Task: structure prediction
Amino acid sequence: MISAIPRGVTLSARLVVLVSGSGTNLQALLDACADPGFGAQVVAVGADRDGIEGLARAERAGVPAFVVRLSDHPTRTAWDGALAAEIRRHRPDLVVSAGFMKILGPDVLRDHTVINTHPALLPSFPGAHAVREALAYGVKVSGCTVHFVDEGVDTGPVIAQAVVPVKWDDDEKTLHERIKSVERELLVEVMGRLAREGWTNDGRKARIGR
Result:
């Protein structure tokens, strides 16, 4: 079945951004949203822990923020339900997992369309150690992926990808830094186009535009 973003979302799409750390992808989106022509606005920032720079970025930008800690809930299912409820309060059109280091569960995914970034060219090297594993394998190119989130780990339909060459003397830190720079640009481009143009899914195939 082919599905697309609702027609009304194309003007000033509401974004909830989820973070777990420094929030550099969040900052890139906040900067982009300052342009009215971008087509989206960050209406809330959510986190799974306190005291992180991502929350400080939200505060400096005047964006509401919330924290839903896994340790405050008896089960992961309960945590997922609480996170879904917090996200729902802000009525997002799209949710962005921007360095959010928790796997989202069925309550969040049932209620919301979630976009994630990953520092590898999926389906190669899914999971938390993508850059390390790519280097260990000896690949000549790596890169980043922006994809829809499904119930698996980095298994959702790919929206866009960008290639980053691997240098002979790269280590995990140097390669990851170059990937993150490209990743920020790709995420901003994709989110703006999704907001302005919508998208179409047909099974594993996803494209920007209707």
Notes: The beta strands are 2-4, 13-19, 40-47, 65-67, 94-97, 114-118, 141-148, 158-165, 199-202, 205-208. The first helix runs from residue 24 to 33. The longest strand covers residues 40-47.
